[in-house]
Amino acid sequence: AAEKLSSLRCEKNGKTYSPQVIAVGFDGGRTSGEVFGIPNKDFNRYVNSYNDKLLSAVHNSELLKENAQYFTTVPMITGNKTTFIADGLHYSDETLMMISDYIKNSTK
User: Model-level pTM?
Assistant: First the structure.
């Protein structure tokens, strides 16, 4: 999806515009207790691997590699202080605001 969006172009008044794509890796779930009855270490076991593979895909993409600086993860945005709502899986309003602010402040 990031490559498809990155390849979009629009011309207006002789100037070409294209979207800025920011690839954002995720943070699994809370890091204490359980998430839906699953110990957090088991629930989150693939998060780092997924984020590493996403970053690698960005770097290996002809369309995205020039914008690889627009890769981050939720833990990077929150300074490893991601918070969740009571279910332990979905981000809290505070975390969602940090993500929104990051994206807003990263756009040209």
Answer: 0.83
